[in-house]
Amino acid sequence: MTGDQAPPMRLKGAPSWLIGQVSAHSHRLVTERFAAADARGYHYRLLAALAEFGPASQAELGRRTGVDRSDVVAALNELAEKKLIERSPDPTDRRRNIITVTPEGRDHLSRLDGVLAQIQQDLCAPLSHPEREELIRLLTRIVDHHVRARTAESPGTK
Fold it and tell me: Which of 49, 82, 84, 128 is most buried, judging by how many CB atoms fall within 10 Å of its CB?
């Protein structure tokens, strides 16, 4: 970075600031590239969860993907309009819907896997393959630590 683009040294040594900068760049790449593929990040998360774990309720999908309940409903509506998912009443609780990915949804997810792979390549371009693996390992360790800490603090888990 040059002159007026360089952040203060205090920030350059702060992991929270660095992670925030990478996150903003990553978010921009995901938004732009998925939009070009007629999708959104939420679409990918929901389809990936359905493909990996099978049919699920809207609430379960929200918990698995970290998507807010109202955003889950909106994203599922978009996916349903495109025939990428199907909703059916839960036989054990008629107030709930069970969401299932369609064959078209699996095809779309496969195309999005390619888009996401290219995003990862572009985001991590300056890193070697071993450095990318190390970055993933370290970030996973940080995320897992904070998820465990948050779970331990949640009411009803003690």
Answer: 84
Do 37 and 112 contact (CB within 8 A), yes or no?
A: yes
Neighbours of 74 (CB within 10 A): 14
Q: Among 58, 33, 59, which residue's Cα sits nearest to residue 111?
A: 33
Tell me whether strands 93-101 and 56-57 are parallel, antiparallel or unpaired: antiparallel
Average confidence (pLDDT) over 115-124: 97
Q: How many of the other CB atoms lie within 10 Å of CB of 26?
A: 16
Q: Which helix (H) or strand (E) holds 35?
A: helix 15-36
What are the φ/ψ torsions at residue 67 (nearest 5 degrees)?
-100, 130
pLDDT of 92: 87
Query: From CA 62, how far away is CA 73, in angstroms rounded?
Result: 9
